[in-house]
Amino acid sequence: QVQLVESGGGLVQAGGSLRLSCAASGSFSSSLVVMGWYRQAPGQQRDLVATIASGGSTNYGDSVKGRFTISRDNAKNTVYLQMSSLKSEDTGVYFCYTYSGRLGRSYWGQGTQVTVSS
Q1: CA angle at residue 66 from 74 to 63, to 5 degrees?
Q2: What is the pLDDT of residues 60-81, one digit of tens each?
């Protein structure tokens, strides 16, 4: 099993910045092929924010390109999301995601709320 613990959410004004962190732990946390973030606004589906592979390749949702940066520390099994130039439409619950190659399945964190006030 893999456990994901998110931190860093909160309330911020439009134009501001926040940094999210997600630490993975468990017996197979070292085999995390992909780590990333998805978000879900009230009444909406869960959408891709960004993912990063163990080798460093990244993928971003169109709405966050140029404003958000994803990074990871493989030694710490931790993924980070630096969010800048935040907009009210970035408001939502941000879920950490990972796929374990060893276990052949995905895992999700419990989510952290990000609220951007305009």
Answers
A1: 100
A2: 999 999 999 999 999 999 999 9
